Amino acid sequence: MDRNKIGKWLKSPGKMAQKYSLHALYFCTGCGIIEIPPTITARWDAERFGVIPVATPRQANLFLITGYVSLKTLKYIIRSYEQMPEPKFTVGFGSCPINGGMYWDSYNTIKHLDKYIPIDGWIAGCMPRPEAVFVAVTHLWTLIDKGKADGYKKYREDYELYRENQESVLGKLEWPPLFSKEKQHEASV
Amino acid sequence: MDTMVNTILEIIAIILLALLIGLFFLGLSRKITARMHWRYGPPITQPVIDIIKYFNQTSTSHGYLFSFGLILSLSGCIVLLLFLPFGHWCPLSSSGGLLVVLYLMLVSPLGLALSGGEAANPNASIGISRKFLLAMGYEIPLLLIVVGVMSYYDTISIVEIVDKQLQTGCSFQHLPLLLSGLAYVLILPAITGMRPFEMIQAPQEIASGPMAEYSGKFLAFTTIQHALNLFIGISLFTNLFLGGASNPGYFFLKTLVVLIVMLIVNAVFPRFRVEQAIRYLWKWSSALALIGLIIVAIT
Amino acid sequence: MNLEILLAIAFGGSFITYISGRISKKLRNIFAILISVGLIGFIGSLFGNTTEETICPGFWNFPLNLRINMLSWFFAITIAIIGALAIIFSLQYIKEKERTDFYYLMILLVNSSMIGIVLSGDLILFYIFWEIMSWSTFLLISYSRGPAISAGMKYIVMSIAGSVAMLVGILSLYTHYGTFIIADLSNQLSLNTPGFVLFIFILFFIAFGIKNAVWPFHTWLPPAHSEAPSPFSAILSGILVRMGMYGFLVIFFVIAGIDLFINLGSRLVHFNTILAWIGAINIIIPTFIAMLQNDSKRLLAWHGVGQGGYMVLGIAIGSSLGIAGGTFHIINHTSYIALLFLVVGAIEYCTKGIRDLNSLGGLIKKMPVTFIGALVGACGLIGIPLTNGFVSKWLIYKTLITDGYPFLAFAALLGTWGTILSLFKFIHNIFLGQLPEKYKNIKKPPFSMQLPIIILSLIIVTFGIIPGIPLKVINQIMISSGIDSLNITLWGVNSETGTINMLNIFTALLITGVLIWLIFKGSKKAKQIDQYDNYTAGTYVPKDKYHYSVEFYGPLNRMLRPYLKDFIDTFYLKLAKSVKNLGNGIRQIYAGDIGYYVTYIVFFLALLIFIQLKWTLW
């Protein structure tokens, strides 16, 4: 890690701070959540990477989607994702968000989560071990360094497509659109 | 003119040093707790990294009172710093003494409560009600202790209390104040919000209480306020009972020792419920503090 | 001459207002405002006068005097200002109700009689004006019929008991010293007759204690404040109950004198120590009972009882800091409790009569000015630095600690925390939280209601930052009563054992506040969202169900409720019931049957004959 390199801190403190202080939303989806408590407690310590779980989406900037996504859960995932402040990063765990995984022909699960919210990285496995979580976090750091972890920017620009996909599967949504047409070109981070 | 420049430099030095020491204490508390749990834990500079990240995030606000409450709370904290002696520095010592300190300690929770109330979230309201209930709990023994100390030294000015202790030894060495000091040690985790009295920010129960709707720069200010509150709570105890210090470095060492003793309790305990906390604070520490006050009043 | 004209304008004005109300409403409103504001100007022009004049040399052979000195002026200007603000507030508030002419007549009569009380130099006039004030208050408390009538009955019965005690005291002073005039009685009481002095003190303590709602006599106050119309509640709790404090000041410091007051008592226990302990109990119990209330006016009424304890405590200690603190607390308390009652009145007006704390919420978005007034009033009541409540409480605490009363100091400091808890519940349940659907379209209160709120908030903050202005007046009061004066500067008090300087605190808070605000503005701008975009763990906010206000301090209520019953009230009700039963029992003698009466006569004659035979008395 380059956490102790003062030069990089002085050049771009925002990016360095985003990397080394990823607060994960403690959102328990599906069966993958069983791997998260060992990761954040004493045996495989996630706090040394700066990752701690927080209670509300407003305080979080890392969203871990840890298993299969049913239709009900999709509504909550979209709502929580929209309440997170920018810059935010999402990571999909396991094979279910990638292509449906074990539930590839179920009527109730979402097969390609990428159509509904933007995902920055995937971890393959059913379930991935805690060491795989750490590999994912360090890989996310490299992506942030290179500027490729820009799922939230994609969400802002292509919001209409995303909303269309969400409404096609969930029906009419109760909350108003997050970005109206004029705001899509506002400068964010 | 000279003294005014001196005072202004003292004020700036105290605020910056208190902020640095507070953030250092926060990081140290996470590290020591982690080591006691047989794991490594984040680097000691992690709170600084958190604050820089928070300032880099966007934020949402529910209204004007949302920001104003937080500003009021933080400025109350900073003004309170100027009334507590830090080594031999105490800029605003001649403006009312310990009574002003006791009343300025009300501004900070009130500001946070107003801001959390504006968030229109019942989790925030429950957190605020718990905060005030806990404050009600520890104020009874704290007032008994502070009135006892003021009566014993026959003054309301903290600077005089520190001077008298530097001459005649710290308050623990004066027999009438021994019980009051023990009672203060029992309530010290409650004043600074460490476990087992951490029920205000209970992430698993009430979604972090008053901070439920904070994001971005509001969280940065909350972290700074947490750091300053930790420092102020420990500093008041050091000044009243451990004799203050004659220079800032020695003062920092004394507060560090107090912090490490509190952290050993913090790492092991879960959190109380509010009625258990109030019962504990009103039973044992109030009894000790009351007996201490009676002893001081008799002698 | 001036004083007679003043009283004539005050009383005559009330009747002119009533009569002009029959002609036209607008004329009556103009008259009411003119008279009340004119009274402020008139009294203000009398600042610094110290005159005494006889208005009627032979009222049943007793001369009647009016007098004005600094103490009377201090109270008179407060009465005039609060009266004017309440009348301006009630222009819109009382418009929809019935018998409005009667309301204006009574409220002006109450103001005039209070001014008469403080201006009277003679115990007969004092008693006359006291009685006029009492029954006009009763008529106003029962103004809105229904449960208000029983509240008014409770008030008037206790007030009459107090007036009877006062009459006994006045008459015994006359039989001992032969005069009713206060100035002549000033130096007559002495330590040679301690039993008589104690008797007088206890009688007047009962009389003024019932009016001031000191702890054993406080039970009339909560129902009376809740049922009265809100502008009158502001006058009632603000300055009317403090007429009892004026009475205390007159009897303890003007008639008896400070030396007699401090030295009365044996070696073990002094009179003023007992009074101080009554004050301390008066602080703690009502402020904690206020925490359990669900009706906003009842909560404020219990605080009115509680803060009276500070004044009694300050005055009872007898040192110059204590008396200054207690007297200053009188006008401080007037300003913020009047402000809070006017805020409740504004909310009642806008929500068409709701004052129950469990059904309001989120009104800050609709009434921001009212919220700022409530916040400043609440901060003053708690005693946050930069409000005037802090200065008066600081003076009281300092004298308690440095004069060696640690337990009283603890009791006084503890009252603050009960106040914070209950007032935060008040502010949160009315103004913060989620706005219910049925109040989405309410309008702001009209300007005539916002104006008194703004003026009172300005007074609170100004007297908090520059406490020297009222403290100088209080200093002169103390000098004229023979108490040592304090060293007052414009910004605070310098005494030899510790100073208070509000300028430092004010500047420090201002500069740090501005700096942090600048840092705040310099960071990224926050996006404004409404109350429906809230953390609900992923769903949307259920309307009207997402508000935490019922049982706001649930755990503490469960712990304290069994201990905080108002047992004095139960005692008085039992006393009233047993008197009624006794009366019923005696009534049984008159059975209506002539046989019983003949039996009574025969038995009584037999008893008389028996006594004559045995002991030959006649």
- Biggest chain pair interface: B-C, 76 and 72 residues
N-to-C CA distance of chain A: 24 Å
Number of helices of chain A: 8
Mean of pLDDT of chain B: 89
Please state the oligomeric state of the protein chains shown.
heterotrimer
Q: Tell me which CATH architecture of chain A applies here.
A: 3-Layer(aba) Sandwich
Q: What's the number of structural domains of chain A?
A: 1
Strand content of chain B: under 5%
Structural class of chain A: alpha/beta
Walkthrough of the structure:
The complex is a heterotrimer of chains A (189), B (299) and C (618). The model of chain A has no long low-confidence stretch (mean pLDDT 87). The relative contact order of chain A is 0.15. Chain A is globular, with a radius of gyration of 17 Å. In chain A, 38% of the residues lie in helices and 10% in strands. Chain A has one domain: Rossmann fold. Chain A has a 5-stranded parallel β-sheet. With 189 residues, chain A is an alpha/beta fold. Chain A has 8 helices and 5 strands; from the N terminus they run H-H-E-H-E-E-H-E-H-E-H-H-H. Chain B has one domain (2-298). Chain B starts with a helix and ends with a helix. Chain B contains 12 helices and 1 strand; from the N terminus they run H-H-E-H-H-H-H-H-H-H-H-H-H. Chain B is mainly alpha-helical and 299 residues long. Helices cover 72% and strands 1% of the residues of chain B. Helices cover 70% and strands 5% of the residues of chain C. Chain C has 24 helices and 6 strands. Chain C has a 3-stranded antiparallel β-sheet. A two-stranded antiparallel sheet of chain C has the order 1-2. The chains are: A alpha/beta (189), B mainly alpha (299), C mainly alpha (618). Chains B and C meet through strand 1, helix 3, helix 4, helix 5 and helix 6 of B and helix 16, helix 17, helix 18, strand 5 and helix 21 of C. Strand 1 of chain B pairs parallel with strand 6 (526-528) of chain C, so a sheet runs across the interface.
